[in-house]
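During the first year of the project, the team set up a workflow for recording each protein of interest as an amino acid sequence followed immediately by a discrete structure-token representation. This format lets reviewers and collaborators read both layers of information side by side without switching files. As required by the reporting guidelines, we include two representative entries from the current panel. The first entry is reproduced here exactly as it appears in our internal archive.
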Amino acid sequence: MIPLELGALEGLGDLHARDDQVTGVRIDSRLVVPGDLFVAVGRGVEFQDDALARGAVATLVPADPFGALAAIGRAVRERSEARVVAITGSMGKTSTKDILAALCSPHLRTVASEANYNNELGVPLTLCRIEADTEVCIVELAMRGFGQIAELCEIAQPHIGAITNVGPVHLELVDSIEGVVRAKGELIAALPEGGAAVVPADFPVTRTDIEVTRVGAPDAHVADNRTELDGVSFNFTARHQAQNAAVALAVLDALSLPRPQRVDVDFARWRGEERELSGGGILINDSYNANPISMRAALEYLTERAEGRRRVAILGDMAELGRTGPDFHREVGAAAAALGVDEVLAVGESARLYLEAGVTGRWVANVHEALRSLDDVVRPGDAVLVKASRAVGLEAIADELSRVATA
């Protein structure tokens, strides 16, 4: 982190310091290293002594944790000449960030958000990792309602904004697809004059003082366990990742960086991870999150990767769909049936609706019941997809399948 004088923290809360500047910011005392500022969020106030023992030079108990972190992140951002890229979208934000970071890192000193650090805590923490020599910082912006992206942009002050796509996500907060467009559009509105935007082909942009690149359906080719897109070879085969890669390449162009012939991407956990199962089976662990569009894409990928194997989909609830939720769950079930999925294990109250479309399967109330059902659902040699919204916790299913496979 660019060293920050403690004077910049005055008025943010109860500050105790052993030095006059900090070189890092943490909200988890277990991660503190010498030179850090420990910001006590929630029960963090109970761990100030632990942070000091690990080398923290200051602790801050803020009156407003989100406001304090925003002020600290903004202070670091304003001291940096790095170009900031902000990525949002209904799906694919984290994967697009991962792809872009892999493309940028060989050319520029790059900071990218860890995992899905994309909210009022994660964005400032990402900005606080900017060093004096950082040249590009890639942040991911969440959207849980109107105004959130605008607030995050006030902190990050992006030069380039990318919207991966627009779909039926968080509808209980923004009501409609039009509401999603409006909320995502806050990123475009926040860009400075002369900035650059990468948006879906049909996304409305009225600004004429920024450069706008529109990304349509990519012409990708899959062979030898890699995907080739516009002359660049990527280490994945999922077709929905090709769309994310197309957005990342457009941002790379906006940064005036060269395109490589080949790039290998380290994706964040639980996003299409593949592992071998017993009897020649395969596990696709996409348990981090789910919405109607990403569900269908994952089911299509399961069908492609099965290659003659029996196809099993362990699908949990899709959250935050509002009044349209039941219809979307039925549509996903219909997609599974149309794609020829052999068996669905539906997990969660809303997931029961997957089975109304005629697909073969069974329903359980929660992940604990699902774990007890695995022996009856999954056979050696199966191709298995695990996918749900984060709150369902289906990563436990993937972990158990992996444990059995390696036992």
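The second entry, processed by the same pipeline in the following quarter, appears below.
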Amino acid sequence: MAAGIAVSPLVRDSGDHALLLLLGGGGVLALCVGLAARWGAALAFGVGLLGAQQAVWLARGPDALDAWTPLYAGAFLLVAELAWWSLEQRVPAWAERGMALRRLVTVLFACTGGCVIAALVVIAAGLPIHELAGVLAATAALAVVAAVARTHVR
């Protein structure tokens, strides 16, 4: 899935292929190293590079926002969540009936929420009221980050 995220900006019309390929390929490579070595810093670096790739893509201007942006946001969140989940220490609580399924449902719900919020931001960005769209986008982004962070606090 991370490879699909890394390739997605490349298949769209872009003049920044070299930089996008470098960021996306580096992100996937760092994720693979992090997963193989069970090294959290490499995972964080890989997720950061994939995020930087999308930031470079979106910095191209309003035309970079398209129907695929919300899907990218949800997939990006899913890759990050599953990567971190794979590194977590296995504890006896995981043996409880339904615990893994409950967590998977929570992760999928968060990713769906990320898609919906990203879709709202894309819609709001197309409106002429740029200040309101910026405020709504920042508020929505902070709400998602706060909700995800709250689930990871122990």
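For the second entry, the following points were noted during internal review. The chain has six helices and no strands. The mean pLDDT is 79. Both points are flagged for discussion at the upcoming steering committee meeting.
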